[in-house]
Write a structure and sequence with these properties.
The protein is α/β, with parallel strands linked by helices. The protein contains 6 helices and 9 strands; from the N terminus they run βαβαβαβαβαββαββ. The protein has a single domain (about 5-200), classed as Rossmann fold. The structure holds 5-O-phosphono-beta-D-ribofuranosylamine. 5-O-phosphono-beta-D-ribofuranosylamine (GRF) binds near residues 9, 13, 109 and 172.
């Protein structure tokens, strides 16, 4: 039985594309029922249109305040009746009302080995810190920024001559493998959350 998933993205949407490709290839048993974006200029919109995925634009700048935006976003999310919401480069922090409305049903991908380097510019933080290994983390979203239970991680080496961009490219390749894989496990009902730990069964 296919699960209904919806993707939230703000930008180029390469992770969204990786998920769409995996669904089309039959490796992820899901139907993508919506792309929700806060950015009317997001390239992710073109990707959705090509794949005939309905697009919902909740333009942050058209609301008088954050509360209004969050209310509209919550309504849009409820309307899609998705079983899983996939944050793929969604550049706004979800308010606690939204997180609480969908417990254990929102996933995020972060370009660092959490709990190291949460927040913005994770790859830059990694280069500046001088770590020798970096990577990406797929996790469930809770009320803590980049802090929810970890589903999958993948690592890459950091080279001596890396800058933020070269490291980001290397990590991104792994993101495109990890995210579809984590979504596949969710769709197959194989993720069991036990406190902070996610058991893959
Ligand atoms: C990725 O690096 C992801 O880990 C982070 O935002 C970036 C989105 O890239 N959350 P894309 O829009 O999926 O290409």
């Amino acid at each position: 039985m296919k699960k209904r998933i919806a993707v939230l993205a703000s930008g180029r949407g390469s992770n969204f594309q990786a998920v769409l490709d995996a669904i089309r290839a039959g490796t992820v048993p899901a139907a993508c029922v919506a792309l929700i974006t806060d950015n009317p200029e997001a390239y992710a919109i073109e990707r959705a249109e090509k794949a005939q995925v309905p697009v919902l634009i909740i333009d942050y700048t058209s609301f008088p305040d954050r509360a209004g935006y969050e209310q509209a976003l919550l309504a849009a999310m409820q309307e899609c009746s998705a079983e899983l919401f996939v944050l793929a480069g969604y550049m706004r922090i979800l308010g606690s009302g939204i997180v609480r409305a969908f417990p254990d049903r929102i996933m995020n991908i972060h370009p660092a080995l959490l709990p190291s380097f949460p927040g913005l510019h994770a790859q830059r933080q990694a280069v500046l810190h001088g770590v020798k290994v970096a990577g990406c983390t797929v996790h469930f979203v809770d009320e803590c920024l980049d802090g929810g239970p970890i589903i999958l991680q993948a690592c890459v080496p950091v080279m001596e001559d890396d800058d933020e961009d070269t490291l980001a490219d290397r990590i991104l390749e792994r993101e495109h493998e990890c995210y579809p894989e984590a979504i596949r496990l969710f769709c197959e009902d194989r993720l069991v959350i036990e406190g902070r730990r996610v058991r893959i069964c």
